[in-house]
Amino acid sequence: MSNKVIDVKDLKKNFSDNSNIIKAVNEVSFSVNESDIMIVFGRSGSGKSTLLHLLAGLEIITSGQIKFENYTFQDLTLDELASIRRTNIGFVYQFHHLIPEFKAIDNAAFPLLLNGHSKEVAYEKSRQILTKFGLEKRLFHKPNQLSGGERQRVAIARALIHDPKFVLLDEPTGDLDRETAQEVREMLKDFMINSKSSLIIATHDRSFEEISDFQKTMDSGSFI
Ligand SMILES: Nc1ncnc2c1ncn2[C@@H]1O[C@H](COP(=O)(O)OP(=O)(O)O)[C@@H](O)[C@H]1O
Ligand SMILES: [Mg+2]
Known about the structure:
This protein has 224 residues and is an alpha/beta fold. The chain has 6 helices and 10 strands, in the order E-E-E-H-E-E-H-E-H-H-H-E-H-E-E-E.
């Protein structure tokens, strides 16, 4: 039985640039069920990042709706959205955005500490998830001591550690070579076998079709 996690209707986000209005997201509608992997393709500037930022509650919606459980994002403030994000949402950026002074294990543990878990619980879970992602020998390395693929695996571990209901990945392999990108895709696929999280992945990389349940393509802010 399908279990709807996110429902999006007629979503719009405009930016104003001097006297012009940029319709970054324009009348986008879709829904995502539990454990789905949805891929959003589209060339640069088509609106993928803006869509992900709206779904993460990082931007205020211009019009339309995002429903997640009993929350309607268009009715909430950025502070309220931040609190939903901390407990329910994971975000992976193209360029990892890890904290440079923190070791891998600190970076991945961070969301649990923010959510009020004890250090013991947060660090044990961080060790487990990094080990699962093949990083057991890199727990105490800082980001600048890791390869690009390892850094991205830490960033994904950090996004998944609090068992979010959904995870948004913005060009997660955009900065990786082909082989490393393949490893990251395989890792996500393996992780999803036992996970109830839903993934929404924005990418140019057609290879993501292999792991997707469904795909959309964006052009000028709309799904085509
Ligand atoms: N903060 C912003 N202010 C003004 N324009 C923006 C802003 N963010 C994105 N845009 C514009 O919105 C459009 C979509 O951008 P973006 O969502 O980043 O696309 P993509 O991630 O597919 O490359 C582009 O025309 C971009 O210049
Ligand atoms: Mg983008």
